[in-house]
Amino acid sequence: MSSPRASSQGEFDANGAAIDDRPRLTEDEKKQNHIASEQKRRQAIRDGFDRLTELVPGLQGQGRSEGLVLKRTVDFIRANLDERQKLIRQVEAKGGKVEDYLRV
């Protein structure tokens, strides 16, 4: 079809495939990148659990069991939602109006 050509978008070979000037990663480099990505992902999860232990009452300063953190977080959120509904009912019982966006 054509000979190698250059364009503003990069270089192409005779078959029109893009020529990448960057060297390909070795298998070891790919493995190391994967390991680093996995470590970063795990650290993000640990950081998230640490933030939950700071926010949820009763979790500060305890050894962290992720299952316990999740259970207590769910319990805490449910209790807060129940309290919110109770307060909404009290406001409405006294003739007040609660905006729809506050009911969520």
UniProtKB/TrEMBL annotation:
<keyword id="KW-0539">Nucleus</keyword>
<dbReference type="InterPro" id="IPR011598">
    <property type="entry name" value="bHLH_dom"/>
</dbReference>
<dbReference type="GO" id="GO:0046983">
    <property type="term" value="F:protein dimerization activity"/>
</dbReference>
<dbReference type="InterPro" id="IPR052207">
    <property type="entry name" value="Max-like/E-box_TFs"/>
</dbReference>
<keyword id="KW-0238">DNA-binding</keyword>
<dbReference type="Pfam" id="PF00010">
    <property type="entry name" value="HLH"/>
</dbReference>
<dbReference type="GO" id="GO:0000978">
    <property type="term" value="F:RNA polymerase II cis-regulatory region sequence-specific DNA binding"/>
</dbReference>
<protein>
    <submittedName>
        <fullName>Helix-loop-helix DNA-binding domain containing protein</fullName>
    </submittedName>
</protein>
<dbReference type="GO" id="GO:0000981">
    <property type="term" value="F:DNA-binding transcription factor activity, RNA polymerase II-specific"/>
</dbReference>
<keyword id="KW-0804">Transcription</keyword>
<feature type="domain" description="BHLH">
    <location>
        <begin position="29"/>
        <end position="80"/>
    </location>
</feature>
<keyword id="KW-0805">Transcription regulation</keyword>
<dbReference type="InterPro" id="IPR036638">
    <property type="entry name" value="HLH_DNA-bd_sf"/>
</dbReference>
<feature type="compositionally biased region" description="Basic and acidic residues">
    <location>
        <begin position="19"/>
        <end position="42"/>
    </location>
</feature>
<feature type="compositionally biased region" description="Polar residues">
    <location>
        <begin position="1"/>
        <end position="10"/>
    </location>
</feature>
<dbReference type="GO" id="GO:0005634">
    <property type="term" value="C:nucleus"/>
</dbReference>
<feature type="region of interest" description="Disordered">
    <location>
        <begin position="1"/>
        <end position="42"/>
    </location>
</feature>
